[in-house]
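Fig. S4 source data, part A: sequence.
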Amino acid sequence: MLLTFTLPASRASRRVEVWRKLQRYGTVPLGNSGYLLPSSPANEEQFQWLATSIRKYGGDAAVVRVESIDNVSTPQLVGRFAEARAKDYQELIHEIEKFASRSEHDRGIGRLSRLRNRFQEIVEVDFFGSPLQKRVAELLETADGRRDARPKRRAPVVNRQDYRNRVWVTRPRPGVDRSASAWLICSIKGKVKKKMSPRLEFFYFRSPLN
């Protein structure tokens, strides 16, 4: 399938918008004639929606079913799609390797999630099954396993007795939240009970202590 279109020169922002959508759809250019996608109902629907948008922007667009191209064979067309997806996968591999080389502190789950999302985006437009798809999936699985294998940090054990019969220092005119915090720390299991500290005292200072 071929999408051909023109947009007025004054519509620069619309050109960028259309180009980004074409990239997201996984198209490959056919010279200056337009952009190609393998024939399928889903791809045809995307082209039709984009053509409608282009016309709304004041341009012209047409979706053409192509049986053959005289100067480009079918294997050559498949090769163009494969080359485009290989480039996408290679860029993603580079990003995964950068992620894996980071310290444990910098390997956040958010970074890995973004890499996984990008992988899914590429897979959706990998129309001819690039061999790099399996390699990227394995790298992501390894990166995920390393993150899960990190030792879990245990919360420090707090002895409630260490906080009983203490003097609490705070600023003047404390609100109920600051007053309640000291009582809750001294309580049993964080609940206000009768066995709270019998000697809870507050000192007020206008400036921090040295």
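Fig. S4 source data, part B ends here. Residues 9 and 15 are 9 Å apart (CA to CA).
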